[in-house]
Design the sequence.
């Protein structure tokens, strides 16, 4: 065979390889909304001595690493509720579905859980794109979703309960803390998608009103692995602190680079809002010790409810497991739903949402209260420091639960943010 | 001045990372024409080798130096296994190879998840590789300096093997004219297998080195595979030196664009540059010159 032709074939193969590599690796991050909800009469069967609930988490794909832990926490909560006599005397019959890290799959499986499994409520979701894809399904079928992860706010659906933090319970307190510490300037580093960009918009508005200088704002594509340029920029800008909204693997590369560049937690602390107990070992304690996080729960929170939660979790899943904020929020969400149902004495969506306002629960993070208006819950904000024991210890607390304000209407500096 | 030096180093360093990831591919794809989508997973296997070795040898420095040859062996053996079971049945069928190796990549990723768990694992860097080295004008992270040295060593080593050893001559002979090589009595089968061993082994070495910079998890390889293919295609198929120049050029370009714009825009600009470049020079920087008349 001729070499000329070989080369021609190789070149075609080359372009084919590159295109295919890009298309195939992009599969995991395809995001498109799908509204698939058809209004249908509820088919929830409450006649027997059990009632079905759905758990919808990614058990495969890139998000499995995080969502599997939420699934574990939900299973534990269901087990405890069943051991304690169930909800309204009915045992919970859990139907688990895999969201496969794809928003479209989340929407599809949510529809399946509602209309063919006839579950009374669904618990799960993690990424904002998965929640946004499921929202029309739950609204269309008038069913309930409990969403356990901190998110960018600016949403409140009558069919969703948000048990993770909204921005004024996580990002705003972190800024309050930095301001209290005398921070005059911050550098913003985030992944290039909706949450970091929205969070940074809020941070910039806050900074403007409080005389904090924004020294720089950098976004890295999801999965970005080379942070030398961004670290060089951070180093050159010389801010008092870094506000980190990076997601996933990028954190590992970022913190390794940060340490190698000679930047330290003492000289320029990094406040992160996406790193919890689960992620610490993968990033490496050497790279993280001393850095700050902002959440509403840490494994080290000192409440009787948390001691019991951590003990039960370790007993069920092993001593080497840790508990984190989204897991706690998921665990709490099942108990909140139980309290709502028992107050309403009904599993029907409208009765449950009517009864929701004012429901409280002594959660591992402390007492939380459901806001009947916006369906978020009042939570205490905690700033933590990552310590050598691989856990996060509280260094600052808001002292009392902060009322959820997803549209930041109670903050003068945030005017106009929700409109944009 | 300092910023300029910093960025130049960042670019060279990124180039060396790209080169390490792409060098094995330059051999298997560039020389043999096999589109191996599982190349990224061989990188991942190298990274997990470093993790396992560190479990056995707690001294991070010693374990790093044990991991490098062991990573080469693990990557290489996986490559040979893939070659012997699947790929040899589908030479000259690039599209099929592409799909088959993509499937193998997914299987290997899930295997890693089953063996080591879905969360990332930690590979500690030795003390002398964390922190930075003072070069007078500026300080550069020592881990990056190490990777730069390692990638140069890998290129030089590969160059020596290809140029001076009988095996290298056989490989080059098969690349330039497979039929003629066969006619003069070179066993192209065993040459293919050895080429694949070396190429995949280099991926394993890249994996060990990358634990110093990034995450060690099941999807580690997918982060690098696209860039690795770009380097080989831009460098020119069949030429190692093309890949070397392309890797450093892309690294410096990315760093320069990223400094003046943002990481996302820089990525786009680099792609644009490559597309334009390949329009002008579709064969890449270098190509195998032959006297063939067809």
Sequence:
């Amino acid at each position: 065979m001729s070499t000329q032709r070989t080369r021609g074939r190789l070149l075609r193969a080359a372009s084919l390889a590159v295109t295919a590599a890009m298309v195939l690796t992009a599969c995991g991050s395809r995001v498109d909304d799908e509204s698939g909800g058809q209004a249908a009469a509820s088919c929830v069967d409450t006649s027997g001595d059990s009632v079905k609930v759905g758990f919808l988490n990614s058990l495969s794909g890139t998000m499995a690493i995080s969502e599997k832990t939420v699934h574990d926490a939900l299973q534990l909560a269901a087990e405890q509720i069943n051991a304690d006599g169930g909800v309204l005397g009915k045992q919970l019959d859990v139907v688990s579905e895999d969201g496969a890290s794809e928003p479209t799959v989340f929407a599809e499986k949510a529809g399946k859980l509602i209309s063919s499994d006839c579950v009374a409520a669904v618990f799960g979701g993690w990424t904002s794109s998965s929640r946004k894809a499921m929202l029309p399904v739950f609204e269309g079928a008038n069913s309930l979703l409990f969403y356990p992860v901190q998110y960018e706010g600016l949403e409140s659906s009558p069919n969703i309960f948000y048990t993770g933090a909204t921005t004024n319970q996580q990002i705003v307190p972190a800024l309050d803390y930095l301001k209290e510490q005398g921070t005059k300037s911050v550098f913003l580093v985030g992944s290039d998608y909706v949450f970091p960009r929205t969070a940074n918009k809020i941070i910039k508005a806050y900074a403007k009103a409080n005389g904090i200088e924004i020294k720089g704002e950098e976004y890295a594509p999801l999965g970005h692995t080379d942070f030398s340029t961004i670290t060089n920029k951070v180093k050159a800008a010389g801010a008092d602190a870094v506000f980190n909204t990076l997601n996933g693997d990028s954190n590992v590369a970022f913190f390794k680079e940060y340490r190698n560049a000679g930047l330290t937690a003492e000289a320029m602390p990094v406040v992160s809002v996406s790193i919890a107990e689960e992620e610490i070992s993968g990033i490496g304690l050497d790279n993280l010790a001393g850095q700050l996080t902002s959440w509403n729960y840490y494994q080290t929170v000192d409440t009787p409810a948390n001691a019991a939660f951590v003990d039960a979790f370790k007993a069920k899943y092993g001593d080497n497991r840790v508990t984190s904020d989204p897991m706690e929020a998921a665990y709490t969400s099942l108990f909140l739903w139980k309290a709502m149902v028992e107050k309403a004495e009904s599993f029907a969506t409208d009765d449950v949402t009517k009864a929701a306002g004012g429901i409280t629960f002594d959660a591992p993070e402390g007492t939380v209260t459901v806001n009947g208006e916006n369906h978020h819950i009042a939570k205490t904000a905690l700033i933590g420091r990552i310590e050598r024991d691989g856990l996060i210890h509280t260094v600052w607390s808001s002292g009392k639960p902060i009322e959820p304000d997803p549209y930041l209407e109670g903050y003068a500096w945030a005017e106009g943010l929700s409109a944009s | 001045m300092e910023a300029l030096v910093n960025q130049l180093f960042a670019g060279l360093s990124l180039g060396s990372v790209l080169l390490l990831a792409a060098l094995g591919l330059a051999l298997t794809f560039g020389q043999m024409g096999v589109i191996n989508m599982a190349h990224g997973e061989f990188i991942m296997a190298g990274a997990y080798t470093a993790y396992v070795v560190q479990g056995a040898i707690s001294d991070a420095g010693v374990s790093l130096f044990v991991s490098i040859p062991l990573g080469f062996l693990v990557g290489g053996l996986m490559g040979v296994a893939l070659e012997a079971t699947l790929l040899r049945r589908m030479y000259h069928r690039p599209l099929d190879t592409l799909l088959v190796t993509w499937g193998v990549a997914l299987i290997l990723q899930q295997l890693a998840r089953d063996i080591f768990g879905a969360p990332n694992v930690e590979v500690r860097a030795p003390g002398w590789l964390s922190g930075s080295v003072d070069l007078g004008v500026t300080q550069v992270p020592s881990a990056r300096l190490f990777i730069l040295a390692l990638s140069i060593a890998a290129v030089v080593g590969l160059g020596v093997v290809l140029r001076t050893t009988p095996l290298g001559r056989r490989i080059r002979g098969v690349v330039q004219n497979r039929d003629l090589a066969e006619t003069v009595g070179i066993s192209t089968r065993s040459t293919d297998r050895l080429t694949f061993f070396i190429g995949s082994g280099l991926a394993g070495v890249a994996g060990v080195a990358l634990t110093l910079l990034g995450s060690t998890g099941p999807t580690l390889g997918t982060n690098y595979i696209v860039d690795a293919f770009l380097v080989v295609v831009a460098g020119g198929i069949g030429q190692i030196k093309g890949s070397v120049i392309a890797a450093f050029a892309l690294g410096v370009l990315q760093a320069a664009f990223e400094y003046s714009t943002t990481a996302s825009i820089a990525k786009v600009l680099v792609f644009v540059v490559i597309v334009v470049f390949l329009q002008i020079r579709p064969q890449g920087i270098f190509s195998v010159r032959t006297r063939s008349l067809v």
User: Anything to note?
Assistant: The beta strands of chain B are 132-134, 139-141. Residues 12 and 174 of chain B are 32 Å apart (CA to CA). Chain B touches chain A through 72 residues (CB under 8 Å). The first strand of chain B starts at residue 132 and ends at 134.
